[in-house]
Amino acid sequence: MPTDGSVDRGLLSPVTVGTADAVGDDAVLGALVAVEIALTRAWAVVGDAPAELAERVSTQLGWSGPGLLALRHGIDLAELATAAVEGGNPVIPLVGRLRSRVPESDRAWVHRGATSQDVLDSAVMLLARGVGHTIVQHLGEVDASLAALAVRHRDDVAVARTLGQHAVPTTVGLRAATWLVGVRRARRRLEHALAHLPAQLGGAAGTLSAFVEHARVAHGAEAEQVVERLVAAFANELDLAVPEHPWHTVRWPVTELGDALVQTIDSLGVIAGDVATLARTEIGELVESAPGGSSAMPHKRNPVASVLIRSAALRAPQLGATLHFAAALAVDERPDGAWHAEWPTVRELLRLALGAAGTASRLTAGLAVDLAAVARNLDQSAGLLVTERLAIVLGPIIGIDRARSIVAAATSVDDLERVLHAEPGLAGHDIAALLDPAAYLGLAGTLVDRATALGEGS
């Protein structure tokens, strides 16, 4: 077990280097303690606990003001993790340790009415919200870089490839704009998921019975209304959404978060895959600003950032599937194992998304286009790229069957041009203009303008 509170430092997962502090065991423990503090403070908000008691307990548990994750709780992480095995989750031993830190007269207000799942689910949401906002920030940086790239290369004609082969003309700018559209969509979905992450408060079996009973002692017939206010106050303390219903076995908050993270990594994986392909020696259209070397081949300039992002993209979908599998098996009023399987899965998805987004920010900020290579690759097919256009344009002139037979039989640009010049029905037509890839771009420029005009975060 790591002694520094990290999941690991990324030795075998380079894409996640630098993420351990954000999602490691220290961060999880901080979130758990923050949730317990928030619950005590919520009891004070609804008037059950004295305000001074809530402040006293908060301070004794390590809270020193706004920013609940910045806690000085003093809990021994390794010892807590070992103790968590007996009860199957870390909240059980944590509660005892937290209560021991406050005077006996105040201990009843620590974890009052809650169950372990309330605390752990809320802590995961709290952790996800913080990490998620950093991911969104990185996506905004990617957005800005891609928009600038698309504008800069709006009209630079390039080869479009379908099924790995030269297809029709496109532009470097449209390729970047297409990446941009995918990233923006993922960013919006992630922002929506983060804005709706709910706190969890349901009690032992989702009935909130202990909360109602505690409130009834102090408020009598108004107990149910007090508990409704308590749930809202608890969520507000954590800056999470107020839950409409306890979600102990309704796991949409987890699956929707997971889906948004997977979509985010997917969108970055597409960029990385394209960059890795276009940076190949024989293609050479794109160059990373800081390519990696080789331990054996000094000449190598590897697209390392793209490789690392792709490593995340290959792992993320299976993690998302695990969350859905666990959600489907969230049986009874508390899942037996499915809930437990979520914790490391959500954390790994957050970790991968954070690492991939940060890497993508650096990649896109320094991505360079080699226009000479773009032109060289375009020239390989040149007029052959517009055979689709020729079939459309020449059909009404020489007949669709003849037009198709000409373009289908062409084996080279020179061959195509020779046949077209020799075709009697095309005398007087500007063959060079018909074969110009730059004249067959459709709405490429308009699509770039549309994507980039929306602005960052749209």
What does this structure look like?
Helices cover 61% and strands 4% of the residues. With 458 residues, it is mainly alpha-helical. The strands form 2 sheets. Strands 1-2 form a two-stranded antiparallel sheet. It has a two-stranded antiparallel ribbon with strand order 3-4. Strand 1 and strand 2 (165-171) form a beta hairpin. Helix 2 (25-45) crosses helix 6 and helix 6 (116-152) crosses helix 18. The protein starts with 19 loop residues before the first helix and ends in a 5-residue tail after the last helix. The mean pLDDT is 91.
Topology:
Elements: H1 20-23, H2 25-45, H3 51-60, H4 77-87, H5 91-99, H6 116-152, E1 157-162, E2 165-171, H7 172-195, H8 209-219, H9 223-238, H10 252-278, E3 286-287, H11 304-328, H12 338-366, E4 368-369, H13 371-381, H14 387-398, H15 400-409, H16 413-422, H17 431-434, H18 444-453
Antiparallel strand pairs: 1-2, 3-4
Key traits:
two-stranded antiparallel sheet, 61% helix, elongated, mainly alpha
What is the N-to-C succession of helices and strands? HHHHHHEEHHHHEHHEHHHHHH
DSSP strand tally: 4
Overall shape: elongated
Class based on secondary structure composition and strand pairing: mainly alpha
Mean pLDDT: 91
- How much of the polypeptide forms β-strand, as a percent range? under 5%
In short:
The chain is mainly α. 61% of the residues lie in helices and 4% in strands.
